[in-house]
Amino acid sequence: MLPDRLLNRSIRVVPLALVSCFLVGHLASFAQDAPTYQTPPKALADLVTVPLTPAVSVSDKGNMLILEQASAPGIAELAQPELKLAGLRLNPANNGPSRMRYVTGLKLKKLNAQTEVAVTGLPAQPLISYTQWSPDETKIAFANSTDSRIDLYVVDVATAAATKVGSVALNATMGSPFRWLSDSKSLIVKAIPTGRGAAPEVSRVPAGPTIQANIGGKRGQAPTYQDLLKSASDERQFTYYTTAQVMRVALDGQSTPIGKPGIIASADPSPDGQYVMIETVHTPFSYLVPVYRFPLRTDIYATSGTLVKTINDGPLQESVPYSPDGAPAGPRDFNWRADAPASVYYTVAQDNGDPKVKADVRDKVFLMEAPFASQPKEIYAAQYRFEGFEWGNETMALATEQWWQTRKALTKTVNPKTWQTAVLFDRSYEDRYSNPGQPDTRHNQYGRNVLNLLPNGEIMMVNGQGASPEGDRPFVSLLNLNTKQTRELWRSQAPYFERPVAVLDAAKQVILTTRETPDENPNYFVRNLKARIAPVQVTQFAHPYPQLKGVQKQQLRYKRTDGVELTATLYLPVGYKKEQGPLPTFLWAYPAEFKSKDAAGQVSGSPYQFNRISYWGAAAFVTMGYAILDNASIPIVGEGDKEPNDTYVEQLVSSAKAAIDEGVRLGVVDSTRVGVGGHSYGAFMTANLLTYSKLFRAGIARSGAYNRTLTPFGFQNEQRTYWQAPDVYNKMSPFMNADKVKTPILLVHGEADNNTGTFPIQSERYYNALKSYGVTTKFVLLPYESHGYTAKESLLHMLWEMNTWLDTYVKTPKPGAVATQADKSGSGR
Fold first, then answer.
1. Closest Cα partner for 384 from 465, 298, 326?
2. 470 near 603, Cβ under 8 Å?
3. Which one of 76, 254, 346, 480 has the largest count of C-beta atoms within 10 Å of its C-beta?
């Protein structure tokens, strides 16, 4: 997937109808299989149409911005023209990303007050994105999208009034189109160049063949990226829509251009506001990798507009090792030091970015200080891959390193005066129980986040999950950076699941939390950890679906046959009692890989969390009378030198069987009526479970990959290529084993799937293979949808298909159906 700054969006211009097939022997069940969108029962449909709970953003000064979120868009919105270029999905009408989920309203609220104030001056029918507090927190900037352009607005917090800033049209094709300067009086924006002319016409007649070559036989592996450039015409379109002019724009609309127009990947002002670091993509482009691997030039400009220095011009990166530990060769990741006026640091791999090369030092970090005339100096050497700094002050910073192959994570204290280091944490990042939490940060004089260091050398650590053998119990602790000792201040207690989201005053130990129970949706509370008084509720967000209160929820803990501890969340219908007998069941999961059985067996989730009955997973079908085994853990473990996927099938089947057996033991799961489902890698899991076990009556696989020869350079966390482990690829590919499937399976896929590896052809060809062997199957292709589905019509139809499939093949038992010994054992076919 692309980094956040280059997050790709969906595009499609050719409409496709839903693809469906009538099932022999089940015509009555699917009599509505016309090429029109269907609506599920009301209990399911309500989950799609319910208004979303607002999101919030809190300033250091105690102001809360409440963002009212848009509901699912209509399919007509997704059908608007869009372009797929160099891994990006663009809206050519307004020069922004396509398929944005927008904010439709803004409110302001002081944490110590009860009233909310609606922001005035918003455009009619606002489509708001990229909200950003000013460094002094007196203003909030946001972008508003229209059919033809994206405009810049600023909200004055004191008056709660929004004003459009100037007349520039923003270019958001390459990420956030603006950043505040430290003076809070102006912004650095990426604008559409004036006078750029009409868009180039799409060429239907090629000038010649499209050619790719590897002259000299240089080795290089690339994943199966989607939406790549394919022709010279694509290159012209890409250049036209991504070209922007960096400008300094004052709040009165006055603007100053900085540099020349170009394909601006980022424009980041220095903390002191005197410089702007501009990263510009340039030719030669690639037809093999997305834009973030294209050549990238990094320049430092003065905010007055003059070029100070070009600090790097990186080449095309087509041969970056395909591994979480792989990295580009040469300088990478240029960033401003947050606690200094204008200092740039960057990383250089010492192993040429190749994790297979033996090296005592993997990365080195270098620093350049304004006015950027002297040579860079080395400030840090990383044993593993360098992840980044958390800057504090002139004597304290934190550095993190990580190595995926061993799941090792290092955190070190760094003295920026001497650059001496000391190990603070040396742990496995798979070990959720030992996670010390995230350090609290504050905004410094430049408006940048830095460590919130307390006078006695302590720092407050906030843990978002607080994993423990009792389930997730978020906590807050104090860590002494000198002695490395911690002292817990607070931990979430039953019957609530309470999570810290912001530290309002570290010295006084005042925090902002969200608190919830299974029947009470999350709301925000102010909690004083010193006073130990009852927390004060500051929001009153309504329950999104009060009609579902009373759904029963239980956290399950059980073991599979090799002793690995497993967990799942069990949902039971409102009013259900065990005396009514076991229920038809729907199991939903997503496998995860581990290097340690102990880490794989750690408990996740909490029985006290709100029952989020989303339309997206399996929990929604508790409303249809099913027992739900949700987020059933499916760990695939490969300890030491063993690779997890060498025993993928055995561990997969064993984990699924253990979940069903636990439900049977509790008396709530009918083992003869169990369905299984999953999305993406969960869909891949579903197909493999139907291939290698007789545990299930039916399966539902959404947006999966089923033929691993189409992802030959690795998939998920498998780093071996197909040619290095052909038996593993073939055994794990449901397509290669379609002849083994006897269980009904529903395939759903977005027609415009942009996820690496899950091309829609994966489902199309798997369906054809299953059909050729007479398997009861159905393939639903959702027009315009990407890897995740967003249109209201698509979501409602998805639920209708899933519910009909489950009702037909899982809920109603066959006459005289009795689980066979093979069913109970989960033995393969």
1. 326
2. yes
3. 346
State the Cα–Cα distance between residues 690 and 88, nearest whole angstrom: 35
Q: Are strands 635-637 and 745-750 parallel, antiparallel or unpaired?
A: unpaired
Q: Looking at the DSSP assignment, which residues form a beta bridge with residue 460?
A: 478
Q: Residue 709 and residue 140: Cα distance in Å, rounded?
A: 49
Question: Does the annotation count 255 as an active-site position?
Answer: no
pLDDT tens for 475-520 read 999 999 999 999 999 999 999 999 999 999 999 999 999 999 988 9
Residue written as token pair 């300067």: 181
CA distance 404 to 718: 12
pLDDT at 221: 66
By residue count, the chain amounts to 829
pTM (whole model) above 0.70 = yes
**Residue 42 to residue 44: CA distance in whole angstroms:** 5
- If phi > 0 it is left, if psi is from -120 to 50 it is alpha, else beta; for residue 217 that is left
Distance CA 463, CA 477 (A): 8
Written as one letter, the residue type at 178 is: F
275-281 vs 552-559, strand pairing mode: unpaired
Residue 683 to residue 700: CA distance in whole angstroms: 7
Give every strand in the sheet of 363-369, ordered side by side.
331-336, 343-349, 363-369, 377-382
Which residue ranges in the chain fall short of pLDDT 70?
1-34, 210, 212, 214-222, 813-829
Q: What's the pLDDT score for residue 514?
A: 95
Question: Omega before 51 cis (within 30°)?
Answer: no
Query: Between the CA of residue 198 and those of 93, 193, 478, what are the distances in Å?
Result: 12, 12, 58
Angle between helices 792-806 and 42-49 (to 10 degrees): 150
The active-site residue out of 787, 794, 797, 823 is 787
Let me know if 680 is a catalytic residue.
yes
Q: What are φ and ψ of residue 799, in 5° steps?
A: -65, -40
pLDDT value at position 322? 81
Q: Which of 325, 363, 753, 823 is catalytic?
A: 753
Lookup result for tokens 């309002």: 504
pLDDT at 34: 56
Nearest to 527 by CA among 556, 549, 551, 496: 496
Q: Is 366 helix (H, G, I), strand (E, B) or coil?
A: strand
Residues β-bridged to residue 88: 85
pLDDT at 547: 80
Nearest-angstrom CA–CA distance, 142 and 151:
8
Three-state secondary structure readout of 17-77? CCCCCCCCCCCCCCCCCCCCCCCCCHHHHHHHHCCCCCEEEECCCCEEEEEEECCCCCHHH
pLDDT of residue 776: 96
Q: Residue 22: its pLDDT value, please?
A: 33
DSSP state, residue 579: G
